[in-house]
Amino acid sequence: MSRTCAARCYSSETPGTTEKDVPYQNTLKQPDSTAAGPTKPLPRSADVVVVGGGSLGCQTVYHLAKMGLTNVVLLERDRLTAGLLWQLRPSDVEVELLAHTRNVVSKDLEEETGMHTGWIENGGLFIASNKQRLDEYKRLMSLGKVYGIESRVLSPGETKDLYPLMNVEDLYGTLYVPQDGTMDPAGTCSTLARAASVVENCPVTGIQVREDAQGVRRVRAVETDHGTIQTPCVVNCAGVWATKLGDMAGVKVPLVAMHHAYVVTERIEGIQNMPNVRDHDASVYLRLQGDALSVGGYEQNPVFWDKVSDKFAFSLFDLDWDVFSQNIEGAINRVPALEQTGIKSTVCGPESFTADHKPLMGEAPEVRGFFLGCGFNSAGCCSSSVTFTAFLCEGSERQGRRCLNDLGETEK
């Protein structure tokens, strides 16, 4: 199937909007709210200021609160936002961190707050369309056993029994992880953010840095149009805006912004309760969304966002069907029913990526007290607990507390 044909077949029958020349009915644009001003007064000081109210920022303030810090402020330039969670990765450290994220979202938060985070445990399927990929998944299964993650390899026939709408003719097998699932971004972020003072509609305009008697540059304060917060510690969870925030402090943040898209289908009969699907060879994922699917993946020929705009916030890019059609073709091959399914909405927004596809974490070498928690390559929901949990990976809780005590030191 050609890319042009794939885009045409995989579209709603209703005409496109007058605002965008693309074949879908709705975008998820929301009116600009930055003019309303901050949602609460800014404090004069804080032990830590976290910048960015996505999954990374919200998980950071939650873990800081769990480790004893109470005077933490989260600044979000617009509104809180934040997903798929796959537990198996080829790195043992990543497996441990993902397991921690799952426990927080699926169990801990609800027990601590009484609020439902929107966690749905519908399982996950990794697709192997060649022997090498299946061998890789068998190794993942062995690694998962060490950490108590239940998984098993399914034959094409067993996969068809589990997921009747799937095309299994080109499969060698699949890896099924029953306890993978989906988290609701809004519910998760709102629950996590209860651990801090959250100020929305408050963009950061500057980072004050001082030089101490030893010539070491240290964070002094965070500036906004609505006031200044004295603080010895800033955590940069600003996503695609992380580079700009770093520039304010004289810190290099090596990431790039790209257009990253997914579409939400109309209702699909028989898709209810099916596992989420990840097909690495086709670079596509199929995420259950009620009685529909979210379809996305990594673009092989991505569009870069060279000039990151401070006014973009919750806006969306025009979806480039020439770029996205490769994901559509893979999705249609895996679930043929999609070819006759309309599109309910599309999302094409900015996402940050790093050169080695690994996140940027920890204290910046240029400025003491300026920490990075960004560049998570569209996997922020999965790995969001990593930012401060990472301090505990190679030692005891005591070591982690020493890090946090150093973070929260007051100016002398």
UniProtKB/TrEMBL annotation:
Pfam families given in the database record? DAO (PF01266)
GO BP terms: namely: sarcosine catabolic process
List each copy of the FAD dependent oxidoreductase domain by range.
47-385
Q: Which Gene3D superfamilies match?
A: D-Amino Acid Oxidase, subunit A, domain 2 (3.30.9.10), FAD/NAD(P)-binding domain (3.50.50.60)
Region Disordered: which residues?
A: 9-43
Q: Which GO terms describe its cellular component?
A: mitochondrial matrix
Q: Where is the composition biased (Polar residues)?
A: 24-33
Q: Which InterPro entries match?
A: FAD-dep_OxRdtase, FAD/NAD-bd_sf
Q: Report the superkingdom from the record.
A: Eukaryota
Q: What GO molecular functions are on record for this protein?
A: sarcosine dehydrogenase activity
What is the protein's name according to its record?
Answer: FAD dependent oxidoreductase domain-containing protein
